[in-house]
Amino acid sequence: MKNKFHACSIFLAAFFAASVAVFAAVPLFAQSSPATPSINPPMWPKDPTVVGTGDWDQWKKNCHDMTTDFGKDTFLSCATSAFRSRPFHFVAQSVVPGSGVGGGGYYGQDLNRDVWQNRLEFTGVMTIRQFWFAEGKFTARRPHFGDYHSDENFAFQLYARNKQMEDLPFYGLGPDTNVHNAVHFSERDTRAGALLASPLTSWLSTAGTVEAIFPTVGNVSSTKVTSIGQVYDETTAPGLASQPTFLHVEALLRPHFSFASEHIQFNYRFRYGYFHDTDTGHYSFRRFVADFGHAIYPESQDGIRRPDSVLNIRVRLAMSDASSANAIPFYLQETIGGSDIDNQATLRSFRDFRFRGPNSFLVQTEYDRRIIGPIGILAFYDAGKVTIARSDLNFSNLHQGFGGGLAFFLAGKVVFRAYVGLGGGEGAHPYFGIANFL
Description:
The protein is mainly beta.
């Protein structure tokens, strides 16, 4: 009985360690996991050169201490090692909205040389719904060129990644679809490419991406749901009949600046991309995205802004264009509702991927405030829509919603949210999960 109790204690400790370490490991996840889609490249911040990247001996010691002398300190030490150690650690995250929670591993090797900070990384994740993600990437960073001040590095990245999504919902195209008419499709998104990013001045950065996209879209294998091919065809869901290889080229310009001792911050992104159908050219199209992010910190402590009291205001406009003979594939069109394919929150009072179209308009406001310990509250309001025609991008007939819930802070940043979205007219939409990693 004593041995069984001891084994049970170890199992429970490991389980809670995995849960808590998800929060503890968020800062590293944001850097090392497949967090950033190629269409929205990061601006790598400066940091000291990393040395001594082998934590295996410390990991073994921390977890051995937990099994022999379980307590809060030994538990947190083992959990932190399991989800943050170098060069390998475990990861716990989803792949896309609706994929369910998954687990896997990450391996990263530092290959620094002179002023260059080079890193080779591999990540793999499998979820409980059999969605999976695999990525390999090499990133090279160095101090930016020029004598101006900037908190960003010059960076170059090569990557290859694959997302296997077994069951995604499709409600049709346009703003007036019916939530009860959902069908399901499977998608594999494979990409390989290169990314270059650099600051131009202290307040302006740029980036460019060149990548090949190898999509595969089809019916789902389950007989419990309606597959997309049973209801839609090439006319009503362009791209369903065939999926060519795309060459995607994109440029990004990022103005960013702050006022009032960084109590008011602006972070804007302007992207222009071209998707070239390398087969027949029929699915070639262009897309422009303007994303205006604003962060307002209304409170100060000891003369410094409080990072755990912040009002975020975001306005995003996306416009796609194709020649009269071309069609924009439905699987590459904009979606709003819940979270999008990159796990970015959109209309949180609606289901994930609820509205889909070539153009979209979104306004979001959210206030987060830490109350006690790591626990805080949040409240939000969202409004937006998708359109078939660009001329319909305006403030009329917007889908709207509001909501609130709990926010969990780590190092002044929200790393976990649990909330419910209301007011969309399609019932309550709950959300419970870790901050965006994929």
